[in-house]
Design brief:
Layout: H1 7-16, H2 20-50, H3 58-76, H4 78-87, H5 94-126, H6 130-136, H7 139-154, H8 158-162, E1 168-170, E2 175-177, H9 181-184, H10 187-231, H11 241-274, H12 281-293, H13 297-305, H14 307-317, H15 325-335, H16 367-385, H17 393-401
Antiparallel strand pairs: 1-2
Helix pairs in contact: 2-3, 2-4, 2-12, 2-13, 2-14, 3-5, 3-7, 5-6, 5-7, 5-10, 5-11, 10-11, 11-12, 11-13, 13-14, 14-15, 16-17
GO molecular function, one term: G protein-coupled receptor activity
Domain G-protein coupled receptors family 1 profile: 40-302
Transmembrane segments: 28-49, 61-82, 102-124, 144-162, 187-214, 246-264, 284-305
């Protein structure tokens, strides 16, 4: 019987005939993804609105752009798929299907292109000269770049709609997608090339160069530090701790994004080659969950790795008593002196270790002052590794007095 049915018709039968256990598991999982994406990106948005300092650096502008696209996906993309998994079919009219299909393509294109631009930003800041970076990446040019990213993102779904095609509910992927005919006419190749392959090549190329540059910078710095310790001559570094930290945070964002989207890209390539959807329904459901899960990662990454975002999260969540007031006060004392930006920190900073444990900066203080800095750093690391319990008042005072 299945030989006379199309693949999507087979998927439709399987969707309706799922066992209760599978239905509950799939529905709960995608609802959790939707909640995490909505709440996390909303929290990030509130943090940015309440703290103007979070909007004053170029890297944070790209972070905000990603959060906007992810939040919009949690509003007009994921909920419709969650409802479909719950009831076992598409419960909405055709207009909603066209809206979801257009919206998902738009948001995915915006996210991938934003990550590509972010990779270029980090390449120019870490690999090229600071003067060139400041010339190319100021707030004005960054806003123009973001506007171009969104305009280009509209050209992901626009050709499909302009050609008279309609999105249809894909019973395997459980969201509204382009039809199989578009795979034959080159639209699938257009999407894969322009909105997947090119951004991916840019991301991999730029971050490979960035990683190599950071490794060289760290090695050179260690050699200078050894020479300086023997000659007592001051040593300078072209990259600050904050700049390296921001680079690593954005690299983790890209890794998380690619972890979620690599299965999606592979499955899309298989479908494009086959010109049909020949994989199992469970594969396509996983495909959708991976893609949607990527929208919930960024707020978590910033909350863990970025002290300024973490401190603002704590201020917002303090009335909900998610963390004790004592823990929040300790973290705020540590974070009030973090300017969160490679454009805002003086390059002559103390010898310390960033969040991934790599040394980057030389201190030009006297030995007695350096001892205080070391004590301060130990106190900060202790607070970072333990989110509960009482903290020594002297450690907090040091963290406030000697910002690293």
């Amino acid at each position: 019987m299945n030989a006379t049915l199309t693949t999507t018709e087979v998927f439709a039968q399987q969707l309706k005939s799922r066992s209760t256990a599978i239905q509950v598991t799939e529905s709960v999982f995608i609802l959790l993804i939707n909640f995490a994406s909505f709440a996390g990106n909303l929290l990030l948005g509130i943090a940015v609105i309440k703290n103007p300092n979070l909007r004053r650096t170029v890297p944070n502008m790209y972070i905000i752009t990603l959060a906007v696209s992810d939040f919009l996906m949690s509003l007009l993309g994921i909920p419709f798929s969650a409802a479909s998994l719950i009831v076992g079919e598409w419960p909405f009219n055709n207009f909603v299907c066209q809206l979801q299909g257009f919206w998902i393509l738009l948001m995915c294109a915006a996210s991938l292109q934003t990550l590509a631009v972010t990779a270029v930003n980090r390449y120019f800041r870490v690999v090229r000269s600071r003067a060139l970076y400041q010339k190319l990446f100021n707030m004005k040019t960054t806003k123009i770049t973001i506007a171009i990213v969104w305009i280009m993102a509209f050209f992901a779904p626009l050709p499909y709609v302009a050609s008279g095609h309609e999105f249809f509910f894909h019973t395997g992927k459980v969201f509204c997608a382009h039809d199989a005919e578009s795979l034959y006419h080159g639209y699938g190749a257009y999407l894969v090339l322009v909105y997947v392959a090119i951004p991916l090549i840019i991301i991999i190329t730029c971050y490979t160069r960035v990683f190599i540059a950071v490794r060289k910078h760290n090695l050179k710095f260690r050699l200078r530090f050894r020479a300086r310790s023997q000659s007592n001559a001051p040593t300078e570094s072209s990259l600050s701790v904050d700049e390296i930290n921001i680079t690593y945070i954005l690299l983790v964002v890209v890794i998380g994004f690619l972890t979620c989207w690599t299965p999606v890209m592979v499955i899309d390539m298989i479908d494009f080659i086959n010109a049909d959807w020949k994989l199992k329904r469970q594969v396509y459901v996983s495909y959708t969950c991976f893609g949607f899960a990527s929208t919930s990662l960024n707020p978590v990454i910033y909350g863990i790795m970025n002290r300024s975002f973490r401190a603002e999260y704590l201020r917002i969540l303090a009335p909900l008593k998610i963390w004790s007031s004592q823990t929040a006060s300790v973290v705020r004392a540590d974070d009030n002196h973090d300017d969160n930006g490679d454009e805002a920190r003086n390059n002559h900073q103390s010898l310390t270790r960033n969040k991934v444990g790599v040394s980057f900066e030389i201190d030009e203080r006297k030995p007695s002052e350096q001892s205080k800095v070391v004590q301060c750093e130990r106190s900060r690391l202790y607070r970072a590794n333990s989110w509960a319990g009482k903290r020594d008042a002297f450690s907090i005072k040091l963290a406030s007095t000697h910002s690293l």
